[in-house]
Amino acid sequence: MKRAIILFITAIILCSFPSQLSALPEGAVARLGKGSVSEVAFSPDGSILAVASSIGVWLYDAHTYAEIGLMESNAWVASIAFSPDGSLLASGSWDNTIKLWDVKSRTNIATLEGHTSYVSPVAFSPDGSLLASGSYGEVKLWDVRSRTLVATLEVPYVNSVAFSPDGSLLASGSDDGTIILWDMKPYINFTEYNCDVNSDGVVNILDLVIVSKYIGKPASDNVKADVNKDGIIDILDLNIVSQHFGKSSP
To answer: Are 93 and 38 in contact (CB under 8 A)?
Structure first.
């Protein structure tokens, strides 16, 4: 009898809650996520939605809203960012680390350590070569390819970081109410890139056309179109060429 009374009271309480617990707000098309949500980010091609949460990073199909999977974390994930070509996802966590994830396999391929406090913002440079991470009193710059620390920039507690479209500047926003602009040129070795793909003496639309033609192809199909020498011709090469548009070849 006592059990029946408890179940009856529970049913009344549940029914008395407003319908918005299950109903979507006006204009919404789906409700996603598990765990407390820190940040959301779409992949560059818009096909995947990543959700940073207290238990890891959830990936969803942005078109069907279907759950793709969870990239589990032992610490609360505070921030996420996709690489320009969408192949990598960086996550900053409360355990003071940044993790690099292979999006296709959903595996952790590297863990970057060095911060002494939890990592709030993360951001990739437009060419995908650098990763910026912000924490208490500092911004760290990482070489994505070698997974090594490039520089530490001292600044009050950092809430946000963002690269300029050409990658030459990094903006950081801090708790003290200031935004600092950092010159990125000393940390990017532009001379390693030969963006004059057709060797006509200047980086122009013809170079962009050539790289675009070979997108997705191995470097063996056109060695010069693989500008960053990573073995495949992709959007990263296109981004690098576009950043040098109009410049004379070295």
So the answer is: no
C-alpha 233: how far from chain center: 20
User: Which token pair is 28?
Assistant: 């919404």
CA 216 to chain centre: 21
Q: What is the CA radius of gyration of the chain?
A: 22
- Two tokens at 176? 């003290």
Determine, yes or no, domain membership for 16.
Answer: no
Domain span at 143: 31-187
Q: Would you give the distance in Å from CA 67 to the centre of its chain? A: 19
My answer on whether 201 and 174 are in the same domain is no
Residue that is written with structure tokens 């009374």 in the block: 5
Using alpha carbons, list the distances in angstroms from residue 12 to 1, 8, 9. 17, 6, 5
Question: In 10 A of CB 61, how many CB atoms?
Answer: 12
Answer whether 0.90 is exceeded by the pTM. Answer: no
Q: What is the distance between the alpha carbons of residues 77 and 42, in angstroms, rounded to a whole number?
A: 16
> Is there a contact between 230 and 236 (Cβ–Cβ < 8 Å)?
yes
Q: pLDDT by residue (tens digit) across 120-177?
A: 899 999 989 899 999 999 999 999 988 989 899 998 889 999 999 988 899 999 988 9
What backbone torsions phi and psi does residue 170 show, to the nearest 5 degrees? -125, 130
